[in-house]
Predict the 3D structure of the following.
Amino acid sequence: MLRTMTQHYNAVLQRILHLDGLAPLLLRLYLAPVMMQAGWTKFQSFDSTVAWFGNADWGLGLPFPELMVVLAAGTELVGGALLIPGIAVRLVSIPLMATMVVAALTVHLEYGWLAIADSSSWLANERVLESAERLERAKGILQEHGNYSWLTGRGSLVVLNNGIEFAATYFVMLLTLLFTGGGRYTSVDYYVSRSLDRN
């Protein structure tokens, strides 16, 4: 019985192997707008982003801030655009991963893991735990002096913690694309590779 089940299982796996390009496709289509928006935002607010990148007192204190902004924004914008059709996916994943590492270490690390403050999480640090009191106070003020039901009509009020959660998640997704490539049948890379193999 176990042998029969194993054979059926393997037969199903063989049939769905032709769909293995769907996972990289979905990762690409998820990551592309995230990366492109991040790059576009940096270009849209170029001067303030340069100031933030370069200032050691209230910013990141990075050297050559203009160059760093152009490199980061260009990588995210162009890299994200190339992910959509699946062009040079493995190659593009490397600088995009680098931007995620830099973002995690220079911007988000000091805030811990959580992107949104959730004091009930086992990952909550002191900053997150303290934010719960501030959130409750803000809700009280809005309930007393604002139209609270309208303000929360599209979602709950939250405190942005800005931890490494999103940068780390995007890094893992990009690392996966580095190993899988753009995906069978779903990327330009696949068809280019197939064409080169024929020659």
The CA atoms of residues 9 and 16 lie 11 Å apart. Residues 23-111+162-199 form one domain.
